[in-house]
Each structure stands twice: as structure tokens, then as C-alpha cells.
Design brief:
The protein is of the alpha+beta class. It has helices spanning 50-57, 74-85, 98-105; strands at 8-17, 23-27, 65-72. Helix content is 25%, strand content 21%. It has a three-stranded antiparallel β-sheet with strand order 2-1-3, covered by helices on one side. InterPro entries: DUF6325.
């Protein structure tokens, strides 16, 4: 998705709760290849802030890790441009939470 231009990676942060309880945070605004993510390009810089990191870090038990990913659905821009080129106007852009979409489509996997 990233390589095709459908999604643009704006920020990537890895948080790890070490077995001794210490928190290790790596922000990939540095070269992602240094951390084994050679095919990725982070274009936005530091968008996930300390408060964002703290929210997920508080939920990490020792030995657990998580990734905070900030991304843009770049394909939406192309759709919007096509609508504009055709003389139309994008009237509303909204994010629908996955749970709401799954429920509406009858694909709710909650509790499986």
C-alpha cells in the first residue's frame, strides 16, 4: 500500500516495555533501515507526541511492544482531484471507526 502510493507513512514509533519494566521508545524519523524497516520512508516527522506514546505505553506489560503508526490515505487525494476535475466538489470526508463499519456490514469480529 505504501509502495503503491495509496498510503503515506507520516510517523512510526516503536515502544517496548523491557522485562525489567523500563520503557524503550524508538522514533523512526531517523533512518528506518537502521531498525530493519529498510523499505519504508517516513515523510512527516514527529507527529506522535509524548502523550500519545504514554497512552499506549501505560498498557504495555513487561516484554510487550507496540507500534504507533500515523498515516494518510493518499488515495483519497486522488479521488478528490478526480471529482474536482470532473466539475464536482467533495462535500464530506469522514472517518468511520472499524467497529461501526464491521457492525453495519455484519462482519463484527468483536469477541471472537
Amino acid at each position: 500500500m505504501i509502495g503503491k502510493g495509496d498510503v503515506t507513512l507520516l510517523d512510526l514509533v516503536l515502544a517496548t516495555r523491557e522485562p525489567n519494566g523500563d520503557l524503550r521508545v524508538v522514533d523512526f524519523d531517523e533512518d528506518p533501515a537502521d531498525f530493519g524497516f529498510g523499505g519504508l520512508e517516513v515523510v512527516g516527522g514527529r507527529l506522535a507526541n509524548d502523550e500519545d506514546i504514554a497512552v499506549v505505553a501505560d498498557a504495555l506489560e513487561p516484554g510487550m511492544s507496540c507500534a504507533l503508526i500515523v498515516y494518510e490515505h493518499t488515495w483519497v487525494r486522488r479521488v478528490s482531484d478526480a471529482i474536482s476535475t470532473a466539475g464536482g466538489q467533495l462535500a464530506l470526508r469522514a472517518r468511520i471507526p472499524a467497529e461501526t463499519a464491521e457492525s453495519a456490514l455484519g462482519t463484527d469480529t468483536e469477541g471472537d
